[in-house]
Amino acid sequence: MTSKTRVRTARYGSFFAATAAIALVVAGCSSSDDDNGGGGSTGGSTAAGDIDCSQFSSYGDLKGKEVTIYAGVVAPEDQPYVDSFKPFEKCTGVKVNYTADKNFEQQVLVQAEAGNAPDLAIVPQPGLLKQLVATGKAVKAPDSVSQNADKWFGADWKKYGTVDGTFYAAPSGASVKSLVWYSPTQFASAGYEVPTTLDDLKALSDKMVADGNKPWCAGINSGEATGWPITDWVEDFVLRLDGPDVYDQWVAGDVKFTDPKIVSAFDGVGAYLKNSDYVNAGIGDVKSIATTTFQDAGLNIDPVNGDGSCWLHRQASFYAANFDKNANIGPDGDVYAFYLPGKTADDHPVLGAGEFVLAFSDRPEVQALQTFWSTDTWANLKAKASSEDTKGGWISANKGLDEANLVGPIDKLSVQILKDPKTVFRFDGSDQMPAAVGSGSFWKQATNWITGQSTQDTVTKIQAAWPKS
């Protein structure tokens, strides 16, 4: 399976860029430990020799043991992961061996099927997780991990690590996709306000047009994965127009692409992306969306390092990595983002993606690291190791993640959105659908749709690719 996560991370290394702070440990490491190895969550760092190991005592003496991790985040972007495990290694005696491969998604399946899987794998999508469980080589998560998932993550997140009623994998990293990028300084100059409902968003777009502006910019070119940004748009609109239950049924194949609800979601997106009055600001006409790379599409949001011709750009939290290194990103800066609103101000559906930690061994040292990985302590270590600058680093839906450990304003905004008690989170739909659809017909036909194909032809052709059994 080729996921949007794989394609995106292969195309911009700075998403996972990090400092080389080799021996980090949060100040909370000296707090009292709980049964599942959790601990404090706030800032501060200390030298490796000064680590207070009291919180790690519940894991026991694991000196001489080794645990292997396999992932798709390669050097040098892997350094924050390596750093985040150092206190655990120091205090338990375990050696953690992290290896990564750009072809991880294909190779981890090969390894699992051959009985040569790693101890732990960082899985970037629920669909791949299900495939790995189907090999019969994955092992269910221990009770300590399940309890941590209940404590530190919402039920929606735990569900994505569950296959056929068995919990296998706790969440790790995350991204928020329901964002619209804009320029606060430009908005202030023009007297525009951030919308709080879908109707407000439409009214704002119309106001911009009346003022002589073309509001939206977009690009979906992504090499072999061209088209995926439109699938995110459609998924966001299914969530907003019809709610999470219909969304879940659609992702599972119980609601077809040809259903009027899904057709309405496409048309709702088309009201923006196929509207020549709205798009493609500073780039060209509607068809230019298909030839513009997703990395370049929103750069003219920035009035300083771009030309300020674009007012609105829907893209995920990781898009911060694409702006100029000197871009002024923040609530009062030249570049920022707001939550893509729901039908009402009280509706709070959020589309996103994330990673999950799956085990292929139940040895004590593996379960110990798996348990530590599911705590707030680890999440804060990883966040600190990943926070390089205002363009952002890494976030998690872990409720114990302290925003003080995040440098990037978009990271902080994203964590606030994930933690909002009103948030109803749903994982990227096409990353859960069968590959023939999610990374096949959905991407391809969405591209054809943006270049002129009708909505009805588009949904019919996508649905035709859905596996018959």
UniProtKB/TrEMBL annotation:
Transcription found in the keyword field: no
Stretch forming the signal peptide: 1-23
Record's protein name: Carbohydrate ABC transporter substrate-binding protein (CUT1 family)
Gene3D superfamilies cross-referenced by the UniProt entry: Periplasmic binding protein-like II
Species this protein is from: Luteimicrobium subarcticum
Family that this chain belongs to: Belongs to the bacterial solute-binding protein 1 family.
UniProt-listed InterPro entries: Bact_solute-bd_prot1 (IPR050490)
Keywords annotated in UniProt: Signal, Transport
